[in-house]
Amino acid sequence: MNEAIRPGQGTSSQAAATPEVSVVVPTFNERDNVSALFRKLEAALAGIAWEVIYVDDNSPDGTWDVVRALARQDSRVRCIRRIGRRGLSGACIEGILASSAPCAAVIDADLQHDETQLPKMLGLLQSGDADLVVGSRYIEGGSADSFDRQRAGFSLLATRVAKRVLRVDVADPMSGFFAIRRDRFEQLAPQLSTQGFKILLDIVATARGTLRIREIPYTFGSRLHGESKLDSMVALDFLGLVLAKLTGDVVTLRFLLFAMVGSLGLVVHLTALAVALDLFHWSFPEAQAFGALVAMTSNFLLNNFLTYRDQRLKGFGILRGLLLFYLVCSVGLFANVGVAFSVYDQEPIWWLAGAAGALMGVVWNYAMSGLFVWRKR
Ligand code: GDD
Ligand code: MN
Hints:
Blueprint: E1 21-27, H1 34-44, E2 50-56, H2 63-73, E3 77-81, H3 88-97, E4 103-106, H4 118-126, E5 132-136, H5 149-165, E6 178-181, H6 182-188, H7 199-207, E7 213-217, H8 233-246, H9 253-278, H10 284-307, H11 316-346, H12 350-373
Parallel strand pairs: 1-2, 1-4, 2-3, 5-7
Antiparallel strand pairs: 4-6, 5-6
Helix pairs in contact: 5-8, 9-10, 10-11, 11-12
The structure holds guanosine-5'-diphosphate-alpha-D-mannose and manganese (II) ion.
């Protein structure tokens, strides 16, 4: 091996040694917490070669800037600043994939997790006793006292559903605090969802029992500064993950929402058509065009608000997106009618042909909208 790149050779300070563990910290608006966490990690991981990778989604409060300043003082600190993307799971995945250490741990920035457990978690991975170690609130010795009743109720319900439906055999699959062997994570990474919050549940469900899992108790504390980023949408995210895993990733929540919005669009269309005919006394072609325009517009707005809330278009982007959406839907209509005709040609059953056309239309609109209207950067 080349002398110059032999790991750990000729380095006097621990900061330059190859890390045994990368601690991945997803952040969004956590500028007041990142330095405090770093100092706590420094104390907890004394004697271990470690690094910390903050993954920040371009926080408006400039968290990434604070992390960069930390990184200039200490080479154990790294910063990934993601632009045009949001999501806890995706941030954790990118952080772990940016690591070359044999082990990675994920911990929240707000000091709600107990970083003093990290050496124990790392020890279990290094001894070969486990591939994944979960910091658990729901086993003997752990607790989540800082949760309000509503949050505690939802957390327990989700845990029960996950265990029953996805056969996940972990006491606290919703935990955001865990450590994993990076080689095992790398194998699973291509199948993980970058959306939502439930990365641990996703890892365990995707691994289908092939990971050796250990749980250790910890107490979920109170947030140091700032506020939680998890809102009522976590319920939707959770359902989406369950759905995707149950159908082998064929049906996604996004597609289901898109199709639901589309069905609602039919109702909107018919209502607008009736109004134009009866109230405005327009001719049928005019009224039909009006109905289509109203339905496409309301579909676009609903999709922007719900289906693609994580990639919501704003400002001028809304207008551009709306025009593109009109275009996509117009072509979708041709696809719809074309398929319906050819099915009817083979098998003259009106509802079968109609349904086949509608399905073609929604699949087309969904695929093209994802490509052109709410395109990922
Ligand atoms: N990069 C990035 N992008 N980070 C994010 C995002 C995001 O979109 N959303 C949240 N974070 C970061 C926060 O800055 C914080 O460091 C961490 O992820 C957890 O977010 P919180 O907003 O503090 O979540 P919580 O405390 O309400 O929920 C915690 O407990 C849940 C268990 O019930 C988290 O650990 C969840 O993962 C966990 O499921
Ligand atoms: Mn938190």
